[in-house]
Amino acid sequence: MSKFFNKLSIIAFLSIILLPSISHAEAALDPGDLVGISFWVISIAMVAATVFFLWEAMRIGGKWSTSLTVAALVTLIAAVHYFYMRDIWVASGDSPTVYRYVDWVLTVPLQMVEFYLILAAVGMVAGRVFWHLLIGTLIMLLGGYFGEIGVLAPVVGFVIGMAGWLYILYYIFSGEAAKSAESAPAAVQSAFKAMRLIVLVGWAIYPLGYVFGYMIPTVDAAALNGIYNVADFVNKIAFGLMIWSAANSST
Ligand SMILES: *C/C=C(C)/C=C/C=C(C)/C=C/C1=C(C)CCCC1(C)C
């Protein structure tokens, strides 16, 4: 019975948060606007993923429920931002850069929390692992943001952003985070490896979007947003699904 009420309160909570953004649409979507359609599809996919991860957090429970709840927070934050970004894009064709980075500055650190949590759940990790990953994240995002809004030359922002990302890769492939994972149980290790593969392969889509958007040779808002949208879909939903599948295989 109390599980039933938990679920009811999740539905009420999601409706309160998401309804204003759902009803906010100002302009009709043009059938030829593929980027606009991708904004639409992904905003709904983020809502669906949120419900799924929350539900599964309660069903699976135990030490995995925190990780699954954080996965749901990532897609929830993204869903809200996608509703606003979609409206800006559909109404004006402009890149919703500020909203995009506000989303990232919240969701990327939460994904770094995930690395910490899956290792901490088995007692394998020091708190400084999270701080190192957070610093790498902030350098990456600040470089990208200042490059995109024109405070830095696009190429300078790009180089700073790449440096932050490479630091994260170093830290999870051969730094302390990697070493902490070595002695973890099989399910934790496979989740850790799948997650860092996403940070290597899935995250590589973002600098690609930046290059096509700003560096060859003029600003191309459609390429930029189309590529970023695909990247968010992969890196927020697939990332959560990796955790979900590890949780399932270990319980
Ligand atoms: C949910 C959102 C995620 C996982 C966002 C990730 C963003 C990146 C990995 C961005 C990376 C960038 C570079 C590596 C260099 C150029 C600038 C950025 C910020 C696009």
Automatic annotation (TrEMBL):
Subcellular location: Membrane
Transmembrane regions: 37-55, 67-84, 104-122, 129-146, 152-173, 194-215, 227-247
GO MF: dioxygenase activity; light-activated monoatomic ion channel activity; photoreceptor activity
Pfam families: Bac_rhodopsin
Signal peptide: 1-25
GO biological process: phototransduction
Keyword Transmembrane helix in annotation: yes
Membrane topology: Multi-pass membrane protein
InterPro entries xrefs: Arc/bac/fun_rhodopsins, Proteorhodopsin, Rhodopsin_retinal_BS
Chief subcellular location: membrane
UniProt PTM: Contains one covalently linked retinal chromophore.
Alphabetically ordered keywords of this record: Chromophore, Dioxygenase, Membrane, Oxidoreductase, Photoreceptor protein, Receptor, Retinal protein, Sensory transduction, Signal, Transmembrane, Transmembrane helix
Residues annotated with N6-(retinylidene)lysine modification: 236
GO cellular component, one term: membrane
Lineage: superkingdom: Bacteria
Family of this protein: Belongs to the archaeal/bacterial/fungal opsin family.
Protein's UniProt name: Biphenyl 2,3-dioxygenase
